[in-house]
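Appendix B, example 12.
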Amino acid sequence: MSIYVVGLLWVLGVGLVAGGLAYLVRRIGETQGVVDNNEAAGQVFTLVGGLQAVLLAFVLISLFDGTTAAEDGSYKEADSLVAAVWAARELPDSEGVTTEARTYVREVIEREWPRMSEGGDIDDAGWSTLERLRAEVAAAPATDEWTVDQKNEASDQLWSVYQQRQERLNAATGGGVNSVVWFALVAGAIMAVALPLLFGGPKPATHILIVSILAGTMTLLLFATQQLQNPYGGGAQVGPAAFESALERLR
């Protein structure tokens, strides 16, 4: 099912439930003095709603920045790998460097990326391939100043690959919103929706519509937060396009 359909169902479902609760409150609840409570309830709602909006904005911006950084990091990792291979090709007996680089890229695309999109653990196969690649560069002989410079350049680029790989795996397995923040987000959303139920007014239909829209909006933002937790899965879905392009350049 499409992520947009799932999100729409969540928004509509929660909005209908909240509207139903608002209807029941207006139907069977105490009505005397409710209008007089609007000023007090409105002050509390302003405080709770403002804090909830700030927290949600902070979390969403942080997750969005994380997704952008993950995409940029994948291109840096792939570009550094290609740069390392191109520099190593100037060295004698460096055929194994290209072979290991291709193996590494295929490992990332075919095995690691599906696991990252699921939020699963990544085994050490990619690290082992990267170590063999580093060993190939280290074993290549450098006979003059030019080849020494190229060998150093290849080593520097491989170190960049190592750094970007580590950041990629950290984002895939250790990112997202922790349980404490999730508790604050959900509890704040419930309180923000519950407070308007205390409001009163001459038009029940308008009151019910306001509560439903507020509940749907909170649900939409929480759904967006959940989808952005893993930059390689869900709604973010950063793909392995950088590595697919690198594999073409390494042929």
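Residues 46 and 117 are 38 Å apart (CA to CA). The chain has a mean pLDDT of 86.
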